Amino acid sequence: MRYNTAVNNTGEMDMTKYLAPSLFALVMTASAGAFAAGQNPLSVHILNQQTGTPAAGVSVVLEKKQGDSWEKINTATTDDDGRIKALWPEKPAVTVGDYRVVFKTGSYFSAQKLDSFFPEIPVEFHINKPDEHYHVPLLLSQYGYATYRGS
């Protein structure tokens, strides 16, 4: 069996044809990682199921579990599209652990002069891959809600 090898003009093996694909893959991986690093690691979206419209103006609190208590990390308010695109603050960095977002829905419904069974909705979740993006959507009505891990 004969193998093709590339030998340069000095008699040494030319590794360019072997290294080029590996180098290309490394550059592409680094580019993808840099793109992901530019995206905030946590976003939320609230849709009012009763009206079919985004829930604008809802305060959302991000907390991290510390032993038996919760430490507040950030607070933000949903925009006109019912979204907070960047709930994670610049510091601290994302780490593995248990977190929760608390949607302050009572004041949202009160502002509309509507009753609500849930004054706030805490959604606990676990981050096990700090380099991934986490999205927490909330489908909301006065007397019920649903949530899941979005993308």
Automatic annotation (TrEMBL):
Enzyme class, first EC level, given as a word: hydrolase
Domain of life: Bacteria
GO MF annotations, alphabetized: hydroxyisourate hydrolase activity
Amino-acid positions noted as binding substrate in the UniProt annotation, renumbered to this chain: 45, 83, 148
Keywords tagged on the record: Hydrolase, Periplasm, Purine metabolism, Signal
Signal peptide interval: 1-36
Record function comment: Catalyzes the hydrolysis of 5-hydroxyisourate (HIU) to 2-oxo-4-hydroxy-4-carboxy-5-ureidoimidazoline (OHCU).
Assembly, per entry: Homotetramer.
Family (UniProt): Belongs to the transthyretin family. 5-hydroxyisourate hydrolase subfamily.
Protein name: 5-hydroxyisourate hydrolase
Origin species: Shimwellia blattae (strain ATCC 29907 / DSM 4481 / JCM 1650 / NBRC 105725 / CDC 9005-74) (Escherichia blattae)
